[in-house]
Amino acid sequence: MSISTSIRIDQILYDQAKADAASEHRTIAGQIEYWAKIGRAAIDNPDLPASFIAESLASLSEPRDQATPFVPRSHQG
Fold it and tell me: Which domain holds residue 55?
């Protein structure tokens, strides 16, 4: 269970989050959290492109039961 906290943000940022949230099927809060995660990871890893970070975060949220197991080339038949 998560705790919610009210914050004030710029109306333009809110409107951008609202538009992106609708197209990405997220809540507005979820969209802002998503941006914050990407931003935090970008600050922690300045050598990585933001697009790579976003794609990596998206892959982490995918169900693992549908993933293809990694098999190193040295172990392939």
Answer: 28-59
More confident residue, 5 or 31: 31
Question: Is 43 part of a structural domain of the chain?
Answer: yes
End-to-end distance of the chain based on CA atoms, in angstroms? 46
Asked if residue 23 belongs to a domain, the reply is: no
Q: How does DSSP classify residue 45?
A: -
Quote the CA–CA distance of 48 and 31 in Å, as a whole number.
Answer: 21
- The pTM of the full predicted model, rounded to 2 decimals, is 0.70
- Dump pLDDT digits (tens) for 64-75: 887 778 888 886
As for how many domains the chain has, the answer is: 1
